Automatic annotation (TrEMBL), chain A:
It comes from Kuraishia capsulata CBS 1993. The chain crosses the membrane at residues 181-206, 227-253, 329-348, 394-413, 419-437, 449-471, 491-513. One of its GO terms (cellular component) is endoplasmic reticulum membrane. This is Alpha-1,3-glucosyltransferase. It is found in: Endoplasmic reticulum membrane.
From TrEMBL, chain B:
Pathway: Protein modification; protein glycosylation. The lineage of its organism: Eukaryota, Fungi, Dikarya, Ascomycota, Saccharomycotina. Keywords: Endoplasmic reticulum, Glycosyltransferase, Membrane, Transferase, Transmembrane, Transmembrane helix. One of its GO terms (molecular function) is dolichyl pyrophosphate Man9GlcNAc2 alpha-1,3-glucosyltransferase activity. It is found in: Endoplasmic reticulum membrane. InterPro entries: Glyco_trans_ALG6/ALG8. Its EC number is 2.4.1.-. It is an enzyme of class 2 (transferase). Belongs to the ALG6/ALG8 glucosyltransferase family. This is Alpha-1,3-glucosyltransferase. It is a multi-pass membrane protein. It comes from the Eukaryota. The chain crosses the membrane at residues 35-56, 137-158, 194-213, 233-252, 259-281, 329-349, 356-375, 423-443, 474-494, 506-527. Pfam families: Alg6_Alg8.
Length: 519, 542
């Protein structure tokens, strides 16, 4: 269509209407968490926000998110307040439809940031093929099953947060480095999980904004000094400090920084979540369990029985056979792979290399991090989407990553009511976007040998999901199955972690060794 | 998802600017057009899943609950009782009052559901059960039933119309099919309120599609099955009967075709026999009497609750129930209905043309809805099915009228849906269906800055007609349509802000009924007028 506008408007209307229908869907404890935060910020003075602990769902996001909740709480209409929406209590108060309606709508409205950022991304491109590519990227992000499930069913505000991330990325692409840094800092002050992307940002901004690498080797002291662009450093440092100051300043003024930081970084959690996120530790825990069975049944060695890692109640997990993993190990592993990922950016600081390193930083944190949640897969998928149209080989990695990542979210919505919605929505998304990306990415001269494994893996997801669903369905009639409750989750997390780890491998291969993609 | 292929055939201009066709742009290429059909079906199912998350009728209202409990109860009694007790067991508590195919359908679903969780359908013990899994199971059975019966009918119907009547490209046929599948009333009644209307409507639709493809005996079988699922399919029976009779016996267009007559007759009778055989074999012929007694409850009133039929709407002025006896009312309503359906039946009998069939069905079923005995508000789904199928005409004025009457139909369901707690779904589906068809394009044109105006074509030079699908081109219809919308908005606003006066607690509902009745009557007259004007028109090619 020659004169296309490539507007996200229609997609916004359609998805918003669909999301309104999801209002009565399942909501997790995160709903109560955010309600409680609204209540805290509404009733208490700022200095008590990070101290108040009536409910166990204490405020543990950085200050901008607290300010955001403060704004939301002051916009609550009277009939929602009457519905106990803003009550601070240990147990969730008896709220009903108005509160749900209000909170769900704030998610939809705050998500407009994402639509706005991506519409800007589309409009800032050259009309023609580039614009159509950007349209596919943008629409695939806004319609992403992960965002729909996590934000509009499970309940969180990721749409807005990733909207800010996209703003920062678009600025990076347009070489507005200062704005890129400021948006990223704002994002950090909303949710500190984005710290995992910091190394890539650091390398990218350092190389592009703070240093002028001269062509010749510098021979005088003054030319060495000129390698560093001092003015830019000052601008960057002061603007980031300003943002951080706005966020944390008031809390520093009241002297409550220490409890704030303690809230932000709790270390009392276990290595894995109740449901293992599909990462390296899922495979590790799985191996441990297999070895336990071996010890018991093959070598007839008694193994002291331990609390099950999948029971969900146990906070700190000890492995039985394999050596224990300490937070320090996970931290070092993450850091190692992240530092590795930023080296190419330091050498060639292009936008595509930068997005590649963001993706790998996300991968490293997801695969090796401490107490990773399966929702964190968005941290990998969303930056990655921006570079997928570059090359078919990246697209193959993307297919593997998205289908494994999205299927791994299925246990998040565990009720039967959402079953049809989650499976069909993911399926349709995959069909439409795999076809669209296939169309817009330049084709390969030859099909890679490994792609067949990709295809087998993706098709293999169908029986995996079917088997787990059948197990779930029959668990009430066949009592034996109830004892293997954790098997369902284990099937999901082990199978999906294979996909995620494989996509990380191929991504690393392409990123470090295949230069023609990134030029 | 951009497609850069030029379209080969541009016959359908009606939906050209609709978001629906905007979404299907990526599938316009010839080799991917088949994908589009599956995509729209998947999206139709996704919307139904999302609507199904909401509440159902009678949730948490003991002792009788609502339609959901009735359907569940039938799964319970058919799986646990011998066939001869199906129509006799504890009739006070949701006794089975639909024909045998509903019973068999319930039996099958009950058997499957029993494999998943036997406690859902335990005899007597499961009454009023409200398990989370049960709700999901029941919701899924409606979706699967619709996928089996209704969706293929819609796809085949729009394909036939596109190929042989309107001559539009396959992708535009898909757009039409999507427009039909996103009709809000059926979605919200079946998947929100909870019923299996899609089965009856789907079987009826399959029968009409068979008639379009000249498979008369198969058409008769499907129609009997439809009747055998819900007796309400009788709304269509006069037209189907007249059409079949005409193509078999009427000597003028086709000649007297004794073979065809025998085939249709045998098919009809044997299907009835198969449906009734299990009852006769287990309980003797008296069972048939019992089924008829259960299925046609003439002892009930002329209307239930408030419904936008002639009798209820004019009841405000004439208190029929005090003026006439029940028997007199039955006769009166029969006479009115017969007079009402006469034009449609006569025209289809004299001119058995395929493109008239849907119009005649609409005329006939509207007359039943407006004038017959014992009409429910949900019965509006029956006339709305052939009415919605008229979207396949892809003609500006027809589409505008059909969109309008679908909106009025949805509005007429409002009192029921409000009671069920489906207000959110009501508004969302109302907006969604209109917006998909492009009826709300004028809002996008007004509100949005230029770069946001969506779509491949809307941003280009736009003629006046392109942006206002909702309005009929004739000024008198425009006035009527706009007035009715203002009336709807006013009624919703009044109801939201004011309680009805104490002496007339039903005042707002009566307003709803009167407005809907007026619009339905006008539409019924318009259908008959169009039918009369089109009676001699021949298909372009066939």
């Amino acid at each position: 269509m020659g004169k296309s506008n490539f507007s996200l408007w229609n997609i916004w209307v359609a998805s918003t209407l669909l999301k309104c229908l999801l209002f009565p869907a399942y909501r997790s404890t995160d709903f109560e968490v955010h309600r409680n935060w609204m209540a805290i910020t509404y009733h208490l003075p700022l200095k008590d926000w990070y101290i108040e602990d009536t409910s166990i769902w204490t405020l543990d996001y950085p200050p901008f998110f607290a300010y955001f909740e403060w704004i939301l709480s002051h916009l609550v209409p009277q009939f929602v307040i009457d519905d106990n929406c803003l009550v601070i209590s240990a147990e969730p108060p008896a709220f009903s439809w108005p509160s749900v309606f209000y909170q769900r709508s704030t998610v939809i409205l705050s998500e407009c940031v994402l639509f706005w950022a991506l519409q800007w991304y589309i409009n800032s491109s050259q009309p023609g093929t580039e614009r159509s590519k950007n349209f596919v990227v943008a629409s695939s992000i806004v319609l992403s099953p992960a965002l729909t499930f996590i934000d509009h069913i499970h309940f969180q505000y990721n749409g807005m947060l990733f909207g800010i991330l996209c703003l920062s990325l678009v600025n990076a692409q347009k070489k507005n480095y200062l704005a890129c840094a400021v948006f990223y800092t704002i994002l950090l002050c909303f949710k500190h999980i984005f710290l995992y992307l910091a190394p890539a940002y650091f390398a990218f901004l350092l190389r592009n904004y703070c240093l002028n690498i001269p062509k010749k080797v510098p021979r005088s002291f003054s030319s060495v000094c000129k390698i560093v662009n001092w003015l830019n450093c000052l601008k960057l440092g002061s603007s980031m400090a300003l943002v951080v100051g706005i966020a944390f300043g008031p809390f520093a003024y009241y002297g409550v920084i220490t409890p704030l930081v303690q809230r932000l970084f709790p270390f009392a959690r276990g290595l894995t979540h109740a449901y293992w996120a599909p990462n390296v530790w899922a495979i590790y825990s799985f191996l441990d369990r297999v070895l336990i069975q071996f010890y018991r049944h093959v070598w007839k060695t008694p193994v002291e029985s331990l609390a099950s890692t999948t029971s969900g109640l146990v906070r700190v997990v000890d492995f039985t056979v394999l050596p224990n993993i300490t937070p320090k190990v996970t931290f070092l592993l993450t850091l190692f792979y992240q530092i590795f990922a930023i080296l190419p950016v330091l050498i060639t600081p292009t936008f595509t290399k930068f997005v590649g390193s963001l993706t790998l930083c996300g991968f490293a944190s997801f695969l090796f991090g401490w107490h990773v949640h399966e929702k964190a897969i968005l941290l990998v998928i969303i930056p990655f989407t921006f570079i997928v149209p570059k090359d078919k080989r990246l697209f193959e990695v993307f297919k593997l990553l998205t289908c494994a990542g999205y299927v791994s979210l299925f246990p998040l919505l565990f009720r039967p009511a959402e079953y049809g919605f989650k499976t069909l929505y993911t399926f349709v998304w995959c069909v439409i976007y795999y076809a669209s990306f296939e169309e817009i990415t330049p084709s390969l001269p030859r099909r890679g040998f490994w792609n067949r494994f990709n295809l087998i893996y993706i098709i293999g997801l169908l029986p995996v999901v079917t088997i787990v669903s059948v197990l779930e369905m029959l668990s009430s009639t066949v009592p034996v199955l109830q004892r293997f409750e954790f098997v369902k989750l284990m099937i999901y997390s082990v199978y999906c972690s294979i996909g995620v780890i494989a996509s990380w491998n191929s991504m690393s291969w392409l990123y470090y060794l295949d230069d023609e993609i990134w030029s | 998802m951009p497609g850069s292929e030029p379209r080969t055939r541009l016959n359908v201009t009606t939906f050209r600017h609709s978001p629906l066709s905007d979404f299907l742009v990526p599938f316009r290429k010839a080799q991917s057009q088949w994908v589009a059909r599956y995509i729209i079906v998947l999206f139709a199912v996704i919307i139904r899943c999302a609507v199904g998350l909401g509440p159902y009728s009678g949730k948490g209202t003991p002792p009788m609950f609502g339609d959901f409990e009735a359907q569940r109860h039938w799964l319970e009694i058919t799986t646990h009782l011998p066939i001869k007790k199906w129509y006799r067991y504890d009739l006070g508590y949701w006794g089975l009052d639909y024909p045998p195919l509903t019973a068999f359908h319930s039996w099958f679903l009950g058997k499957v559901g029993g494999l998943i969780d036997a406690s859902w359908f335990e005899l007597d013990a499961s009454r009023g059960i409200e398990a989370e899994g049960l709700k999901s199971f029941m919701r899924i059975t409606v979706i699967l039933s619709e996928l089996v019966c209704y969706v293929p009918g819609v796809l085949w119907y729009s394909r036939w119309m596109g190929r042989f009547y309107t001559h539009i490209s396959p992708i535009d046929q898909t757009v039409v099919a999507a427009a039909i599948l996103f009709q809000p009333c059926l979605i919200i009644i079946d998947h929100g309120h909870f019923q299996y209307n899609c089965v009856m409507l789907g079987l009826a639709l399959l029968s009409w599609v068979s008639l379009l493809y000249d498979d008369y005996a198969i058409g008769a079988i499907f129609f009997v099955l439809s009747l055998g699922f819900k007796q309400m399919a009788l709304y269509y029976a006069p037209v189907v009967f007249a059409y079949l009779l005409s193509v078999c016996c009427w000597p003028l267009p086709n000649g007297f075709n004794i073979l065809r007559l025998c085939a249709v007759g045998t098919a009809t009778l044997s299907t009835f026999a198969v449906l009734l055989a299990p009852f006769v074999l287990t309980g003797g012929f008296s069972e048939i009497g019992q089924i008829l007694h259960r299925v046609f409850p003439f002892a009930r009133g002329i209307f239930e609750d408030k419904v936008a039929s002639f009798w209820c709407a004019t009841n405000t002025f004439v208190k029929y129930r005090s003026v006439f006896s029940l028997a007199q009312l039955q006769l009166l309503s029969l006479v009115f209905t017969l007079i009402g359906l006469l034009p449609a039946v006569v025209i289809i009998f004299l001119h058995p043309r395929k493109h008239l069939l849907t119009w005649a069905l609409a005329g006939c079923s509207w007359s039943f809805y407006l004038f017959s005995f014992q009409v429910h508000e949900k019965s509006v789904l029956l006339p709305l099915l052939p009415t919605t199928l008229l979207l396949a005409e892809a003609d500006h004025n027809t589409v505008s009228m059909v969109s309008w009457i679908n909106n009025i139909g949805l509005f007429s369901l409002w009192p029921l849906l409000q009671k069920d707690g489906l207000a959110l779904q009501y508004f969302v589906l109302g907006v969604l269906s209109n917006w998909l068809l492009g009826n709300l394009n004028w809002i996008s044109k007004w509100l949005l800055p230029g770069f946001l105006i969506p779509g491949p074509v809307l941003g280009e030079k736009v003629s006046r007609q392109d942006t206002q699908t909702v309005i009929h081109t004739h000024w008198s219809w425009s006035v009527i349509v706009v007035t009715s919308y203002i009336g709807i908005a006013a009624l919703h606003a009044i109801e939201f802000y004011l309680d009805p006066p104490r002496n007339y607690p039903d005042l707002w509902v009566i307003g709803n009924v009167t407005l809907s009745f007026g619009c339905f009557t006008l539409f019924w007259l318009w259908v008959n007028y169009r039918l009369f004007m089109m009676r001699n028109k021949k298909l372009k090619t066939q």
